[in-house]
Design goal:
This protein is of the alpha+beta class. The protein has six helices and ten strands, in the order H-E-E-E-E-H-H-E-E-E-E-H-H-E-E-H. The radius of gyration is 21 Å and the shape is globular.
Length: about 260
């Protein structure tokens, strides 16, 4: 993208092409973030993300935030903006519980976040939030996954991935999402880790317990998987990837040598 006669100096001026460039810049920030994905069964929701550090001397950045005992978010984009929205969501959940003595409805909270995001596109002194959220939670209607966007739109999904190279994860989930509804916790987590692994192929990154975060939201509450629990799912992927290579080596060794000529 490029500046076109300063049409990108605020978020209320349309370019001649009908685009609001600052909103597109915010959306681009989401697309350039690390991948995060969510998928749901009939009983629970799993969030899975890649986490990276700015350098070898730095701690990894948190990509999954607990909001309430029944609700969590995965983020792609500007972490600073995500912290602002996470704090707002936590306060709304606390206020709702204090007033009504019940957990916050997931859809209602997502609508409030969408309205808050859209308001940032209506004032020339503001800028859109440069972050996309995957909101995962469970309420009286069951498990939910919502995606919120910088322009104020939101959608509900059976499974969704956002961030850089998320198309590969979405392709995997589109092939398998009809199985998710009947999956138990272990199977759902395994699908999540395998989908996340698809986003690393082009970068030749290897999934480890240090660069992967997995959390589960169920009727029992929110849970972040410990590294020792996550290791078994990564081991299954490594084993699956090793089997085709071993089969090709065995086939090459068994093939008769051509001695003609």
């Amino acid at each position: 993208m490029f500046r076109n006669n300063n049409y990108d100096m605020d978020c209320i001026t349309f370019a001649p092409s009908g685009r609001i460039l600052q909103v597109e810049y915010a959306t681009k920030a989401v697309e350039q973030g690390e991948a995060v994905l969510g998928l749901r069964s009939g009983k629970e929701v799993v969030l899975c993300s890649i986490k990276r550090a700015q350098s070898q001397l730095a701690e990894t950045q948190q990509k999954i935030f607990k909001i309430d005992n029944h609700l969590a978010i995965g983020i792609a984009g500007l972490t600073a903006d995500a912290r602002v929205l996470a704090e707002y969501m936590r306060n709304e959940c606390l206020n709702h519980t204090y007033v009504y003595d019940t957990p916050m409805n997931i859809g209602r909270l997502v609508t409030q976040i969408a309205d808050k995001s859209q308001q940032k596109t209506q004032n020339s002194s503001k800028r859109p939030y440069g972050v996309g959220l995957l909101v995962a939670g469970i309420d009286e209607k069951g498990p939910h996954i919502y995606e919120t966007m910088p322009d104020g739109n939101f959608y509900e999904f059976h499974a969704m991935a956002i961030g850089g190279r998320s198309t590969s994860a979405k392709t995997y989930m589109e092939k398998h999402f009809d199985k998710f509804k009947d999956c138990d916790t272990d199977a759902l987590i395994q699908h999540a880790v395998e989908a996340l692994n698809k986003t690393t192929i082009s970068t030749e990154t290897t999934l480890t317990t240090k660069n992967v975060s997995v959390s589960v939201v169920s009727k029992d509450g929110y849970k972040m998987l410990a590294e020792e629990d996550l290791q078994k799912y990564i081991d299954k992927i490594e084993k699956t990837e090793a089997e085709p290579d071993a089969a090709m080596e065995d086939a090459a060794a068994a093939a008769p040598m051509d001695t003609s000529g």
